[in-house]
Amino acid sequence: MNRLPLRYRLLLVILSIGFVASSLPCQTPLDAHDSETMGKMLDRQPAGDPLHCLIFPLPPRLDFGFRFLLGYMITCPLMSFGGRGDEVLIFTRITPEGGKAVLFGENTRLPAVDAAAKPGTLKQNVKISGGFAAGEGKYRIEVLVGDRQTGRTSIKSWNTRVARRGDQRAAEVALAPGSVVSVNVRPWPIRLDSSGKGLRVSIFLEAAPLNPRSQVLRAWDRAFLLEALSSMLKQIPCASVRLRAFNLAQQRELFHQDHFDDTGFIQLGDSLRSLELGTVDYRVLQNHQGEVNMLVDYANRELTAPDPSDIAIFVGPRAYIAGVPRRLLKPRETPDPHFYYFQYIPPYFRPAQIPDAISTLTRQLDGAVFEISSPGDLARAIQKMLARVQAKGSPSGSNHAPGRTGPGN
């Protein structure tokens, strides 16, 4: 019996599993059948035309969920896809030493490129990030990248050891040694405080990369934002949550939900992921005041809201843009909300002493800025914020929030 060339057999396998992966916007565990299929593909070296993608391992690091994040970067020349906007499937197999392998899959749609209209575009590379979370131990990692349209693949494998180092030894890792889970942050369990003492919360999430030199939002950036948000909402007694996610560089709001819930958390993750392959419109670059105007609009909405939140929180990396002139802010119509800024600063990066726009805005509104570089910093900052809310009380004398019994200080 004649057998199909390996290249076409790979194409059939990828197509057969592609209907599953097409619904996976991020690294998601595969079921038993798909794990077996992809395991066989990873066990053999593909013949025929390869997919010319490079896969670079990244060193493990402890994330804000007290898990070790192991990541990788995939670089593919657009020339390999002819500008067609192909669907790229990514499968990862992680085998702990002495343990059972775990397989994840995801898909990414590349941007279509009109090479005739934009000469030279196909010479550029597209970068895709991925990763998973693990406990301490030794692991074998294998990554397969496949072009769903042509069946071409590229495979990379390596070994790594995960262990606490330096001041990490004082941290309690959330995952057991040798365990592997998706890096996806699960929605925090919605348990809104209906006792009449909960806080009405507005959150403004700045979807920017943690590394100030980076231009796009990678898997670990998304994980930080979602982990920080989840940790925050678990610790704050929320009566309601209103959330907006935005990107100042693109002057674009990515997500908005007035009554934030589990479904919204998932939709937020999908919206953040869309930034990885996004581009900035040239008209945005020409609008030099666009970032400031966006922040001012968010603040003024809170200052003039007929039914204001108790607290308004900005969360995200340091925003390297000019400050916000006080004259652009509208007068308060109510004493609430109190403003706070949870500003992430990488521990390896020493920022300029000039305050960023969001910290300037927060202080102009008599708010507090908390600088965070580690999970411990975040936990302490949340408790400090709650203590300030308790101490300030409610200038309006409302009784729906804890400690709101007298004038603010």
Looking at CATH, which topology of the largest domain would you report?
A: Rossmann fold
Q: How many structural domains does the protein architecture include?
A: 2
Tally of alpha and pi helices: 8
Could you list the spans in which at least 5 consecutive residues all have pLDDT below 50?
1-25, 394-409
Strand content: 25-35%
First-residue to last-residue Cα separation: 85 Å
The count of β-strands is: 16
CATH classification, class level of the largest domain: Alpha Beta
Structural class: alpha+beta
**Could you describe the largest sheet, including whether it forms a barrel?**
6 strands, mixed
Q: Radius of gyration, Cα only, in angstroms?
A: 24 Å
What characteristic shape results from the CA principal axes?
Answer: globular
What's the SSE pattern?
A: HEHEEEEEEEEEEHEEHHHEEHEH
Specify the helix fraction band.
Answer: 10-25%
The CATH architecture of the largest domain can be given as 3-Layer(aba) Sandwich
Strand order of the largest sheet: 13-12-11-14-15-16
Mean pLDDT: 79
